[in-house]
Amino acid sequence: MGFVFANCTSSPKHIESIPLKYPVILVHGIVAHDRWDFFSFWGRIPSILEERGVRVFFGNTDSWGTYESNAAILKETIDAVLQSTNSEKVNIIAHSKGGLDSRYFLWKYDYGDKVASLTTMSTPHRGAEIADVVWEQRIVHTEFGMKILKLFGEMYGDQNPDLYNVGYALSTDNMEKFNEEVVLDHRVYFQSIYSVIRRSTDDLMFYNSHRYIKRITGENDGVVSEHSAAWGENIIKIETPLNHIEIIDIKMRKISGLDVPDIYIGILNNLAEKGF
Fold first, then answer.
1. What is the rounded CA–CA span in Å between residue 40 and residue 18?
2. I want to staple 223 with a disulfide (CB 3.0 to 4.6 A). Which of 111, 151, 218, 244 is the partner?
3. Could you tell me which of 237, 65, 55 has the C-alpha nearest to residue 154?
4. Residue 22 has pLDDT above 60, yes or no
């Protein structure tokens, strides 16, 4: 296990710069969007990192895009960032399915020489047990069900929505196959970071899902199990209980004494020390 984030104190009045060599690309997961001006799914994180001299960009991926289509978008985004910043590489921080999109992108396009690091946040590397439940529902596989899913994705504003295949891609069976083929690139420093919530009653929004996943797999954040999120050689568990969306500062406030952006400041200071 790597270092553990405890209950960090709030940022000091004197803002210290993070000596990061390469720019940061934030890649969201499903449901989220980084194309909306009226709401930030990354909370205060981008602005706080920019205050510390970090060049921050969004991945611009689709919320309901497949690994293949989002990987193509990521390639376009990263090429543009490398050109505009005159950088040799980028650092990727990806939440949830965004971590899988990023892994697939690196493997598909062999971009290990252009990405210094990949940090995944609560990513279901071994699949999502909730996706298994959804995939077992008969209506999902009907013509009507698939039409509704397609319509929802289009209304959401995605370029290439494919909710049906995204659901299957996140299943535990499919992720077993995914991991056999999409291996980690040794040129890229990889780390997986995650959190869990202690009791189902601690967060009513994820009460049912947390209880279900805990019963069949174990500790989880209400969406992704610890078993699935802890992936690779550099694994970091956040000590403070956070659910699946709190870890991206969507509530924009302290949680149990932890100011969530401090997690990301810690991540980037650690990467800076490694020369990234």
1. 22
2. 244
3. 65
4. yes
